[in-house]
Amino acid sequence: xxxxxxxxxxxxxxxxxxxxxxxxxxxxxxxxxxxxxxxxxxxxxxxxxxxxxxxxxxxxxxxxxxxxxxxxxxxxxxxxxxxxxxxxx
Length: 89
Description:
Keywords: DNA-binding, Transcription, Transcription regulation. Residues 1-89 form the HTH arsR-type domain. By secondary structure, the protein is of the alpha+beta class. The protein has helices spanning 3-15, 17-26, 33-37, 44-56, 75-86; strands at residues 31-32, 60-65, 68-73. It has a single domain (3-86), classed as Winged helix-like DNA-binding domain superfamily/Winged helix DNA-binding domain (Arc Repressor Mutant, subunit A). A hairpin with a 2-residue loop joins strand 2 (60-65) and strand 3. It is elongated, with a radius of gyration of 13 Å.
């Protein structure tokens, strides 16, 4: 995938209101999908769908912790986006 395609994927993922809100929730630190979903009036399946898109865009990472999948922000993608934005200044 080219850098432009990566940026488009990143910004599409960030641009959805629910995904943007999930990223905001994850600023507090790593948490399970169940804990994330407690912040929303949406089904677990819907939250899982949005987490998958965020993961595919590289914005979140996941890891197994016993019976749970823990999600956390991947700040390197945000840092890369900031570097890209700075090329326009």
